[in-house]
Write a structure and sequence with these properties.
Layout lengths: L17 H4 L5 H7 L4 E5 L4 E3 L8 E6 L2 E6 L5 E7 L19 E4 L3 E6 L1 H10 L1 H21 L4 E4 L5 H12 L4 E4 L3 H7 L13 E3 L5 E3 L3 H8 L10 E7 L3 H12 L4 E5 L25 H14 L3 E4 L3 E7 L2 E6 L4 E9 L3 E3 L7 H4 L4 E2 L4 H4 L6 E5 L3 H11 L4 E5 L11 H8 L4 E4 L2 E7 L6 E6 L5 E5 L2 E4 L3 E3 L36 E3 L11 H20 L12 H7 L5
Parallel strand pairs: 8-9, 12-13, 12-17, 13-14, 17-28, 19-26, 20-21, 20-26, 21-22
Antiparallel strand pairs: 1-7, 2-6, 3-7, 4-5, 4-6, 8-10, 10-11, 15-16, 16-17, 18-27, 23-24, 24-25
C-alpha cells in the first residue's frame, strides 16, 4: 500500500501508524456494508470528491484503486495515500458537515460501494465493529494530515503578536492543519498584493493553497472560510441545543446524541473551554499519566460527532427567547437556532488583574493558557505565573520544564487551601520554581511587548523587578452569563441559579425558565472541577428526557428517540 504520511511527530503524540490509518475491512464487513449503500462503476481518473466539499459520501473500494491528494505549498496536487480493495475513504469530515481537506479520484477503473451521508449515521449506530474501525481510521488520518501539514494553510504574522497568537490558538485548538511563517523584510517586499502598498500590508494574513489571502480575519470569518462551521438550517428544531463545548457541554452532547436525541452544540471558539487550555490534567479518572485539556476535548468532540451531534464552532449565543414551548437562540451573526430544550454550559471567562498597562500587554506577553504553543514563546526565559489554584499549579509545573525559571505569585500565605497536594509537592521540590507568598503584581513595563514585571510583598514591603516577557494569569474566572441577564435567575455573582424553589421543576439542573437547564462551572454552587462538570453533563440528560417526554406540544424529530418517548408518556402540560 502506497502512502506518504510517515514523518516524525511530536514526542507527546504516539508515532503515526499507517496500518491503523488505512485498515482493511473483512469480506463479512463488506457484505454487511452493502445494506447501507449502492455500487457504482467509475473509469480511471474520475473525481469522487473535491477539497472544500461538504458532506462527502464514504466510498468502499470493491475493485481498483483510489488516490487521495492534498494540495502542496505551490498549489500542486500531492498524493498522500492510495486506497485498495476493502479499504474506505474519509477522515474526520465524515462525522460532520465540515469541508473536506483532500481530493479523491480513481487511479484505475473502479467498482465502489458508495455509502451516502444519509445512511452513515445509521451505520455508525448499528455496526459497532465497523464503526470502531472507521473512527480509528479517521482520527489517525487527521493526525497524518496535521503532522505533514498536508492540506494546510499558512498563517503569516509575527509569532509574538497578539492577533497572530489568537488565530494560531484558534487553528490549533480546532485541530486545523496550518504552518506559521514570520515574514522577513524580503518576504514583505515580494508578498504584497497589487492593491496594497508595502506600508499597507495587513498582518496577520491567512494564505490558502489556492492563492486566496485573508488579511486580519476575524475568528468567525476564518472559521467560515475554512468550513469549520456547521451549516445551520433555521427551520430545523433540535431536541437539545447545548451552549458551550467545555467538559460539561461535550458530556451532555455525547450522552444526548448517544441516546438518540438530535443534538446541536454551539461554541464561540473551540471545544474544551478553560479545561482545553490545561497543559496536563493528572487527576482525571482513567488517565494515570495525565491528559492535556486539548486532547481530552478533542476525544470528547469526536465521540459526540460519532453519535450524530452537530457542532457550530465560532458562534456565540447572544439571546434566547421562548415561544410555544420552543426555544429560539440568536447567534452573534444574526442566525437563529430552534430547540425544544437548552443546556447552558458556557462556563467562565478569565479574571484579570487590576494593574496599569494590563490591557496593553494582553496577548503581548500576558497569557491565560500554558500549552505547548505558549511555551514556545518562553523557552529558557524567566516567566511569572499568577494564581493559587490547580490551573496555576499545572501551568507552573509544565513551564518549569521549558522556561529557565518560574515565579509563582500568590496573594495569600499558603497554597494548601486551593491546590492539590501533588502539585504543591512538585512546586516545593523544584529548583526551577520560586513561590512568592503574600505578593501582588505592582508594575508592568515594555514597549510593544511585555518586557519587565515588578511585584511587591505586602507583608514586608520588599519589591523585585525581573526581565519577564511572559506572564500567565490564572486567578479564577467569572461566569459567561452576560447574555442571560433578564432571561434566567442569576445569583449575585452572575452564576445561573438551579435546583431551587425558583426552578421550573424539582431537579438539580433546572433553571427558572421551563426547558432550560444549566450545568458545569456556569451553575451556581457547582464544584469547579473537570470530573464534576462531565458528571453534570451526563446526568442532566435524564432530566431532559423526562422534560421532553412530557412536553409534546411540537412533533418530535422522527429520527430521534423523542417521538417514541412522547408516544409512551402522557403529557404533563
Amino acid at each position: 500500500m502506497k502512502q506518504d504520511l510517515s514523518n516524525s511527530i511530536p514526542s507527546s503524540s504516539p508515532p503515526f501508524n499507517p496500518e491503523l490509518a488505512f485498515p482493511y475491512l473483512t469480506e463479512e464487513m463488506v457484505a454487511r456494508l452493502q445494506g447501507y449503500g449502492h455500487q457504482e462503476t467509475f473509469e480511471a481518473g474520475a473525481a469522487l470528491w473535491t477539497r472544500g466539499e461538504r458532506e462527502v459520501d464514504m466510498f468502499v473500494v470493491l475493485e481498483g484503486t483510489v488516490e487521495v491528494y492534498a494540495q502542496g505549498d505551490n498549489g500542486e496536487r500531492k498524493a498522500v495515500a492510495t486506497l485498495h480493495e476493502k479499504q474506505f475513504s474519509g477522515e474526520l469530515d465524515l462525522l460532520s458537515s465540515r469541508r473536506t481537506l483532500v481530493d479523491g479520484c480513481t487511479a484505475t477503473a473502479c467498482v465502489l460501494l458508495r455509502v451516502p451521508r444519509s445512511q452513515l449515521q445509521r451505520l455508525l449506530r448499528s455496526e459497532g465493529d465497523i464503526a470502531n474501525l472507521i473512527m480509528q481510521a479517521t482520527i489517525w488520518r487527521r493526525l497524518g494530515i496535521l503532522e505533514r501539514s498536508s492540506a494546510s494553510i499558512i498563517l503569516l504574522g509575527r509569532r509574538t503578536a497578539a492577533d497572530t497568537l489568537e488565530l494560531q490558538r484558534f487553528l490549533t485548538r480546532n485541530n486545523y492543519p496550518h504552518r506559521l511563517l514570520e515574514p522577513t523584510a524580503e518576504q514583505f517586499a515580494h508578498a504584497e498584493p497589487e492593491t496594497l502598498s508595502p506600508d499597507e500590508y495587513l498582518l496577520p494574513a491567512v494564505i490558502f493553497a489556492d492563492g486566496r489571502v485573508l488579511h486580519r480575519p476575524t475568528i468567525p470569518d476564518l472559521a467560515d472560510q475554512l468550513g469549520l462551521t456547521e451549516v445551520l438550517d433555521p427551520e430545523t428544531t433540535y431536541d437539545i441545543a447545548v451552549v458551550g463545548a467545555g467538559p460539561a457541554g461535550l458530556a451532555a452532547a455525547v450522552y444526548g446524541a448517544s441516546e438518540g436525541l438530535s443534538t446541536l452544540v454551539i461554541e464561540g471558539i473551540a471545544p474544551g473551554g478553560q479545561a482545553g487550555t490545561s497543559s496536563k490534567i493528572e487527576n482525571y479518572l482513567g488517565f494515570p499519566t495525565g491528559v492535556s485539556g486539548q486532547e481530552l476535548a478533542y476525544r470528547a468532540q469526536v465521540q459526540a460527532q460519532k453519535f450524530g451531534a452537530r457542532l457550530a464552532i465560532s458562534r456565540d449565543a447572544v439571546a434566547i427567547d421562548q415561544m410555544d414551548g420552543i426555544h429560539q437562540l440568536t447567534l452573534a451573526d444574526g442566525a437563529t437556532v430552534r430547540s425544544r430544550a437548552v443546556v447552558i454550559a458556557t462556563g467562565a471567562q478569565y479574571r484579570k488583574l487590576t494593574v496599569d498597562n494590563y490591557d496593553r500587554f494582553e496577548g503581548q506577553g500576558i497569557q491565560y493558557a500554558a500549552t505547548a504553543m505558549e511555551a514556545t514563546l518562553c523557552r529558557n526565559e524567566e516567566v511569572v505565573v499568577i494564581g493559587g489554584g490547580n490551573s496555576a499549579g499545572q501551568a507552573t509545573v509544565f513551564l518549569s520544564g521549558i522556561a529557565r525559571h518560574v515565579h509563582l505569585i500568590i496573594r495569600g500565605p499558603s497554597l494548601a487551601d486551593t491546590m492539590s497536594s501533588y502539585l504543591i509537592s512538585r512546586i516545593e521540590n523544584s529548583a526551577r520554581i520560586t513561590l512568592h507568598r503574600n505578593t501582588e503584581i505592582e508594575r508592568l513595563e515594555g514597549e510593544s511587548f511585555l518586557e519587565q514585571v515588578t511585584w511587591v510583598n505586602r507583608e514586608n514591603g520588599s519589591r523585585e523587578t525581573h526581565r519577564i516577557g511572559s506572564m500567565f494569569v490564572m486567578i479564577g474566572a467569572e461566569p459567561n452569563t452576560g447574555w442571560l441577564y433578564g432571561t434566567l435567575a442569576l445569583d449575585k455573582k452572575g452564576f445561573v441559579i438551579t435546583g431551587t424553589a425558583e426552578a421550573f421543576e424539582n431537579t438539580r439542573y433546572a433553571t427558572s425558565v421551563p426547558g432550560i437547564f444549566a450545568i458545569g462551572d456556569v451553575r451556581s454552587d457547582s464544584v469547579k472541577r473537570v470530573a464534576s462538570a462531565v458528571g453534570e453533563g451526563s446526568v442532566v440528560i435524564s432530566d431532559i428526557h423526562h422534560y421532553l417526554a412530557g412536553h409534546a406540544g411540537v412533533p418530535a424529530n422522527p429520527d430521534s428517540t423523542l417521538a417514541a418517548l412522547q408516544e409512551a408518556t402522557p403529557s404533563v402540560n
